[in-house]
Amino acid sequence: MADATSAVPGRFDALLTQLAQQHGGVESLLDSFFDFLHRKTDFYVVSSDPARHKMGFLPGQAQRKVLEAFQRHPMKSLDERNGSAVTVRSVTTTKTTGATAVPTASSAALAGASTAAVATEGPELTEDGKQIPIANGGVAEKYTWTQTLEEVSMHVEFAQDTQAKDLDCHIGPTRLRVALKSDRTRALLEGEFPEKVRADESIWSIESNRTLNISLEKVQRTWWACALKGGPEIDTSQVDSRRSIQEYDEATQGAIRKAMYDQRQQQINGRLPLTPEERMLQEAKNLPGSPFFVLHTTIKTLQEGAHIRCFLPLSLSHPLAGPM
């Protein structure tokens, strides 16, 4: 497997940030990455002659490449960074009932925490100044956010280790307020939602003692332009609204499949335009010598006393295939 060209530093920060936020820590993220290499690439294939087989690596070569990639980036001293290095710890999830949630967690006490947005190169903007959506969401000063038609996820990064028990996170139908229990008068994050949410179905959690994750259940299935009113807006015309059929319930899946089948039948019967491939196949069926030559015949049924026009896939050599 040939070495890939070195990526521009920070080029994939937005994508990798989304992946990191969906994992429980560095170990989980690395495990997913190497699991991908194991299942989808030849990175774990060992060969005594990779050039001849055109795949795989010499014994120990893959391990050396991992070590080389790790050593390509220097270690960072905890003292030099003033304690900003991140240590992966556990995640505590709490469901709110529209009032202040009281979760449990274990870590050092927090003293004067502040919020900071996830480090990225900054979102791309449209000509009218709106953000181009990242995972259908965007980036604000104190948080990042993503969304589906059913829910919104907000992520707040803290400058210091933060326990779930240190936070007062209130999710109401129309508002959000996050503050320290030691200083409830000063909100770390506060604002009004652009649409109503189901407060009793919304939850929040602390990940790695550094990230506050807030999951909001929408009342209306609509795309939000911002997570909180007054925040930076995204261009909702550029959201990815595609949805897998497996995400719907069984009844809806059945209705979708029936609609797809009906549409296909309309195409076959000529009421909708055929694709080029379908048109070619349809024309080939009527060519002399085709095993699927369509024979038009009229059948008189005694039961109905009427003539029914049928399409029978018979070859020209079939006994019933007489002059047209």
From TrEMBL:
It comes from the Eukaryota. InterPro entries: CS_dom, HSP20-like_chaperone, NudC_fam, NudC_N_dom. PROSITE patterns: CS. Keywords: Phosphoprotein. GO terms for biological process: protein folding. Gene3D superfamilies: 2.60.40.790. One of its GO terms (molecular function) is unfolded protein binding. It holds the Pfam family Nudc_N. The keyword Phosphoprotein applies. GO terms for cellular component: cytoplasm. Residues 138-228 form the CS domain. The keyword Ribosomal protein does not apply. Signal peptide: none annotated. This is CS domain-containing protein.
